Amino acid sequence: MSRRRVLGLVATLLLAGCAPSGPPPDDGLSPPVIAQSVEPDGFMEALIEGEVVLAGGCLSVRVSIDGHPTDHAIMWPYGTRRNKDDVAAVDVPGAGTFAVGDYLRAGGGFIRHEQDEDDPFTDCAITDEFVVINPDVAHATPSPTPSE
């Protein structure tokens, strides 16, 4: 089996259960709500902290990597739905509502993705990585910017 085919299989397995949830993509609402479609058996362990922003047409989190702000589209936890009163906000089971301008803190991880027709992030023209947020997501306060 070729290396490209093996990498494609690994990416497919990693993204299994990561289909968009909430309103169907053709509902005309923007930004799309992208959430895990099944409850995961395990979780990633990176600490994700940042501001919820609208970037590249998707709800994203602005994180600081080596002191530089970087936006990553968010794959929300299983059960996350669009907020009925604010199309640019989501309701996360057990954690509340997150909207543009809110700060979040959660376990999770970064996943590199290939843009193809099956990728829910194809329309999120930000980076080649997205963030998977674990169900432990919580509201946070902005971290102070270190003085130089």
Structural write-up:
- This protein has 148 residues and is mainly beta.
- It has one domain.
- Helix content is 9%, strand content 36%.
- The protein has a 5-stranded mixed barrel with strand order 1-2-3-8-7.
- The longest helix has 13 residues, at 3-15.
- The radius of gyration is 15 Å and the shape is globular.
Quick description:
The chain is mostly beta strands and 148 residues long. It has one helix spanning 3-15, and strands at residues 46-55, 58-65, 68-75, 81-82, 89-92, 96-99, 103-112, 129-133, 138-140.
Order of helices and strands: HEEEEEEEEE
Distance between the termini: 51 Å
Helix content: under 10%
Proportion of residues in extended strands: 35-45%
Largest sheet: 5 strands, mixed, barrel
Give me the number of helical elements.
Answer: 1
Overall body shape: globular
Number of β-strand runs: 9
Mean pLDDT: 75
- Overall structural class, as computed from helix and strand content, comes to mainly beta
Low-confidence stretches: 1-28
The radius of gyration is 15 Å
Which strand order does the major sheet show?
1-2-3-8-7
Number of domains: 1
